[in-house]
Amino acid sequence: MARDLARRHALRLIQIKAAAPGNRHTRSMSRHPLLRDVVIVVAAKVAVVIAAGWLVFGPARRPQVDAGRVETRLIGPPAASPSAGNTVP
């Protein structure tokens, strides 16, 4: 019984094929075969998104904001004073 089990185990070990060290076409079993392709596509997409963001929201596209413009936008234009000479007869 033990001898038969050892023989089966030996046959299994013989059937396992090991990759040659210089063989480029074999990949490690722990790496997914599409890993390199997925990493390249994701890196390209990230580069495109960053470039689009820089072109759309970059410093050249930002409006100049100062306190007067913010006040006018939030509160409204200043009211005309009656001493300005705009009186109706």
Write the layout of secondary structure elements.
Blueprint lengths: L1 H14 L19 H23 L9 H9 L14
Structure in a nutshell:
Keywords: Membrane, Transmembrane, Transmembrane helix. With 89 residues, this protein is mainly alpha-helical.
Largest sheet: none
| Secondary-structure content class | mainly alpha
The tally of strands reads 0
Task: Catalogue the unreliable spans.
Answer: none
Mean of all residue-level pLDDT scores: 76
* Distance separating the two termini: 123 Å
Q: Helix count?
A: 3
| Pattern of helices and strands | HHH
Radius of gyration: 37 Å
What proportion of the residues form beta strands (DSSP E)? under 5%
Transmembrane segments: 34-57
Keywords: Membrane, Transmembrane, Transmembrane helix
